[in-house]
What we know:
With 116 residues, the chain is mainly alpha-helical. The protein is 72% helix and 0% strand. Helix 1 (16-38) packs antiparallel against helix 3, helix 1 runs parallel beside helix 4 and helix 2 (46-54) packs across helix 3 (56-76).
Amino acid sequence: MQAGTWTQGASFYMSPASVALLMLNLMDGLFTLLFLQLGVAEELNPVMRAAYEHSPLLFMFSKLLIVNAGLCLLCLHRKLKASRFAIRAGAVVYAIIVVYHLAFLAHLVSHWPFGA
């Protein structure tokens, strides 16, 4: 085996859907963290709840790591139609989640302050 042969054909190209998935995941994490910190939401995922209870930084790190690792695996197999579909589907799902977060934020702002 020649040096560097394992990287032959490797590409760092990221599709627009991959970039969208990463950005939307980050937005989801930040919105979730904001709502948790404000005490207006609770994390239902037991793994992520434990991470948040340990540290908000661990929560964000875990959230980003899990999605990024999954996306890396899908990108490694991006020649497969199923991988490309999964990336696009993930971006759509996260877009819906971010729209939900924005609607929830608008609701919170329209009812601020909570105690009044």
